[in-house]
Each structure stands twice: as C-alpha cells, then as structure tokens.
Amino acid sequence: MAENKNFVINVNGDGGVNISEEVIGIIAGLGAVEVEGVQSLAGNLTAENISKAGQGKLAKAVRVVDADPGKIIVRMAINMKYGYEIPKVSGMVQEKVKQAVETMTGLVVTAVDIRIATVSVSSNN
Question: Domain span at residue 51?
C-alpha cells in the first residue's frame, strides 16, 4: 500500500468518489478479525488497533489489487487460533471480507486470497 492507490467508485456530473487502498484494507481487516478462530491479522493487528495502525503495518497484512474498473481482489494474511479448522475459518473470512467491502464501498470483490501466517497456541485464546 506504499503507493497509496485510490479506487474510483462513483463518477457523475457532481464529481467523483475515490476510496484509498488503506480504507479498503481497514474494512477488510475489521471484517476478518470478527470471524471466530481468527486471532489477528499478520503483524498482530486486532480489531482494537487496525484503524490506528500505520499504513506500512497494514500493508503487511492486507493488499488490494485492481482487477478491472470497479472490481478488486483482496489479499490478506491472518493469524489463527489453535484448534480451529483452517478451511472452514478461511471460507468464513472470505465471505465476511467480501460482504463488508462490497457493502461499504460498492466495489465488486472478485476474490479474497487468504494466507495463514501463524497459528496461535497460547492459552489466552
């Protein structure tokens, strides 16, 4: 996210609306950490600190790729809690992220690619 891309969601006679990649990353990240079994995003970004994280730290966990006009691909790395089924949790994260981003931005999410960065085995789950 270092280049600070913007995604156009609306252009009409009154002007246009652009959403930064960072905002989409925050929306996607917050959606992901709401799923049971997700400890945090890579870099230990939790629901409490995602919006406060610097752009560089968020970029390690969430990337947004421009697929076609009005369409994006979200790529993210998550830390999972031990004892949860990776395929099941990953599928729920994909659904939650797609729904959150599409609802809030109007962009079409064509794919949500998940990378499991770590599995937390701490007793604080």
Answer: 6-120
Structure confidence at residue 3 (pLDDT): 59
| 53 in a structural domain | yes
Instruction: Specify the CATH number for the domain of residue 96.
Output: 3.30.70.1350
Per-residue model confidence as pLDDT tens digits over 83-105? 999 999 999 999 999 999 999 99
CA distances from 110 to 19, 114, 124 (A): 17, 13, 35
C-beta neighbour count of 52 within 10 angstroms: 10
CA dist 123 and 125 (Å) reads: 6
Q: What's the total number of domains in the chain?
A: 1
DSSP-assigned letters across all residues of 89-118: HHHHHHHHHHHHHHHHH--EEEEEEEEEEE
Does a structural domain hold residue 77? yes
Say how far apart CA 37 and CA 120 lie, in whole Å: 10
**Prediction pTM value:** 0.84
Contact predicate 50/61, CB 8 Å: no
